[in-house]
Task: structure prediction
Amino acid sequence: MDKDLVFLSCCSNQELEFLFQIITTKGSLTEFVTTSKEYKKYGKDYQRYTALLANEILDFGSNTFWFQKTYHDVAKDACRKAGVDCQSSDSTETIEMKLLSSLMNRAWKSMTEEQQKKFIECSGNHGRAVYDVLGRIGSSAFYTLCRNSGLFSYHMTYLIANELSYLVLKRGLSFSANVTLLKTVASLTGPISPIGWIITGVWTIADIAGPAYRVTVPAVAWIGCLRNIKKYQH
Result:
């Protein structure tokens, strides 16, 4: 398995279900998971064939039968296709965080002031200072804050992951989180939330770009969420 995807082997079936659904619905015409012997044997026990799911994402990202790209390159391509600037020298984690930060930045502009306040407070920040910084810095604000604050990074990622779960699995996350965060997530996410609008818009761009990006853009976003959530849960 690609070195940047090895951590998926430690994910639960609930966490892996998103990847299965993205591959089999967005990539329904060309995916090989549902015809595999692993799927026929283990069904929804995704932990039994995590390597197959990871390999399928790389195949979609490579978009060729001749060679398979690394996950780093797949993530970089997906990030750029979503309209986010990243460099080949960026680490995989940085590329994922740039994608997630960009989604949050676009959603921020669509939030009401009350929603913005709730998000700031649940992320361990209070007063006008951070609120003003977000309004002033623009597109780099969330990425900068995520680099400087583990708590902020974790909460932002959890919020995006919950919205991704709503859009694909039709339900919020069942991962553990503190009560304050859960209340804030409930008030900021859902089928018609600002974050949902932005993610749906980005996915539409990906759909237009080509069938491969219908899988890789949401997959990279979800993998980035899982990587970050697990990083700060330990």
Notes: The chain has a mean pLDDT of 83. The chain has twelve helices and no strands. The radius of gyration is 17 Å. The CA atoms of residues 82 and 202 lie 6 Å apart.
